[in-house]
Design a protein that fits this description.
268 residues, alpha/beta, 10 helices, globular
Length: 268
């Protein structure tokens, strides 16, 4: 089986825990992925709203160094790791940092995480892209870094679609589900997914119970995951939907999912 996952927080978490990729604590580990014929993973490095922009920039480098020491050495034909950014606060209104991130191998950037940053507003706001944010999205497209609208406000998402379409480049929603099945601002509307498809981008199915179905503290199930997947397909997304597990970034997993080793259960 071949797996491609567009979002996890494993690199960030193993740095925080001070452990290697061969640990036994995280949702994704070296031993857990060995079962797959090929495993390709986007490892996101998060910008925390509790840090200043400069602190996030410095922290990114610390996590990146740990990623290069503990994860990158395992790269092979069977295991392909990629770097991503979650939350562009680390840019600090400096476009040149996008070029630096490209040199580091960053392939995708989640534009915002929560509230506001230099890029604009997150899903819990009605704020779109700032002037800097518009310039930054255009620069990402020029450098073939995919802008990611997971966590973005609806206004920011549509503005990003417009800029990327002008550039002829894709937009991803690396770890987002569908609002028509689970009413949550972190999820996309059907129309947003249709606009994403027009750009040729990908939507990654998020395993977080809160974005799948979460009633009276009861965790979601694989059935809830399949409902979102089937609706993505009903909207014509057979070439635009993938897995965006959010492993090591979520506290409660759906019943039947224990970590990356469970992908084959979901995909059967």
């Amino acid at each position: 089986m071949k797996i491609f996952d567009t979002h996890c927080d494993t690199a960030y978490v193993i740095h925080r825990l001070g452990v290697g990729f061969d640990n036994n604590e995280t949702h994704i580990t070296k031993s857990k992925i060995d079962k797959y014929d090929k495993y390709e993973q986007m490892f996101a490095i998060w910008s925390s709203p509790k840090r200043t922009d400069e602190e996030n920039w410095e922290h990114f480098h610390a996590v990146k160094a740990h990623f290069e020491k503990e994860i990158l050495p395992y790269k092979s034909e069977k295991f392909v790791p990629h770097l991503a950014v979650e939350g562009c606060a680390l840019l600090g209104n400096d476009l040149s940092r996008i070029d630096i991130l490209k040199e580091y191998g960053v392939r995708m950037m989640t534009l915002v995480w929560k509230d506001e940053c230099c890029m604009g507003g997150a899903h819990n706001t009605n704020i779109g892209l700032t002037d800097f944010g518009k310039q930054a999205v255009r620069r990402m497209c020029e450098l073939d870094i995919v802008p990611d609208i997971s966590h973005a406000s609806d206004k920011m998402a549509y503005e990003t679609f417009e800029i990327a379409s002008e550039c002829g480049k894709p937009v991803n929603a690396s770890h987002s589900n569908l609002r028509s099945l689970r009413e949550h601002t972190r999820n996309m509307t059907d129309d947003m997914f249709k606009e994403l498809m027009k750009t040729g981008g990908l939507a990654g199915l998020n395993f977080c119970c809160e974005f799948l179905e979460y009633i009276d503290e009861r965790p979601a199930t694989i059935t809830n995951m399949i409902r979102h997947l089937e609706h993505y397909l009903e909207l014509g997304g057979e070439n635009n939907v993938c897995i965006g597990s959010d492993f090591d970034g979520i506290k409660k997993l759906p019943i039947g999912i224990t970590g990356v080793e469970s992908h084959d259960v979901f995909c059967e």
